[in-house]
User: Which sequence fits this backbone?
């Protein structure tokens, strides 16, 4: 009973925090789109939760969007069932492609890497593959933006390490690229250290928001044999917060 009470209090605090951030964030401006935008997601679904409205807007403007997924998300059923991890990865990557069809990104612009879920490390051999991929994607482009998870607010090591790896690689490969942080687990974890001076916003119209909700559903509705979503069971507060009709970003460079 006491644990349930504490969990309810935590949930209410999360709701109040999200509401307070939304109230402040709605006044912030959008940003000028680059000709090339690289979205880097630690797991399949982070790109939709954090950047679906942005990607729609960029694609509609005729800008090039490249999506990199760091892991296969193979640990989404850890402690749930005995489904094979390779099958989980295969299914979750199919969900990425299905969700991308909703918001208009062609499969040729989606790149899957093989960092281990829950174990993204800079020292992994996949970092060399990521470096080569970024070189290939950028290839002399001058007007480039890269988007990765919020370093202080995401809470999960894969998200934080992904951001560190990507920011360091872009500093070397494309030092003039604009770098932005986006928000996924930021909405769930109790992070109050927010640099509002660098905040910017994508305000989705009704059509864009409806597409984002469909893309989220493409991830969370398909069920594994155990009855849970292939992407795992996500907290209700997390889902509610990420279904907002706006997306919050922070320019870090």
Assistant:
């Amino acid at each position: 009973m006491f644990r349930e009470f504490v969990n309810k209090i935590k949930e209410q605090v999360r709701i109040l925090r999200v509401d307070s951030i939304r109230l402040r964030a709605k006044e912030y401006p959008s940003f000028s789109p680059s000709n090339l935008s690289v979205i880097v997601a630690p797991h399949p679904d982070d790109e939709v939760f954090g950047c679906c409205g942005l990607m729609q807007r960029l694609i509609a403007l005729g800008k090039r969007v490249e999506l990199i997924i760091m892991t296969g998300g193979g640990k989404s059923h850890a402690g749930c069932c005995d489904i094979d991890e390779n099958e989980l990865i295969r299914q979750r990557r199919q969900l990425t492609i299905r969700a991308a069809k909703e918001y208009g990104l062609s499969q040729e612009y989606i790149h899957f890497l093989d960092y281990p879920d829950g174990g993204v490390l800079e020292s992994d051999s996949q970092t060399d593959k990521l470096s080569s991929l970024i070189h290939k994607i950028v290839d002399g482009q001058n007007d480039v933006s890269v988007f990765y998870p919020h370093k202080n607010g995401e809470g999960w090591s894969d998200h934080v390490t992904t951001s560190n790896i990507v920011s360091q690689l872009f500093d070397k490969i494309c030092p003039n690229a604009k770098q932005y942080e986006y928000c996924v687990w930021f909405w769930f974890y109790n992070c109050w250290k927010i640099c509002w001076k660098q905040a910017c916003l994508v305000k989705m119209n009704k059509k864009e928001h409806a597409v984002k909700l469909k893309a989220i559903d493409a991830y969370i509705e398909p069920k594994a044999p155990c009855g849970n979503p292939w992407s795992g069971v996500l907290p209700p507060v997390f889902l509610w917060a990420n279904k907002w009709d706006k997306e919050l970003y922070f320019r870090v460079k």
Observations:
- The longest strand covers residues 64-71.
- The radius of gyration is 18 Å.
- The domain at 45-73+84-251 is CATH 3.40.50.10320 (Rossmann fold).
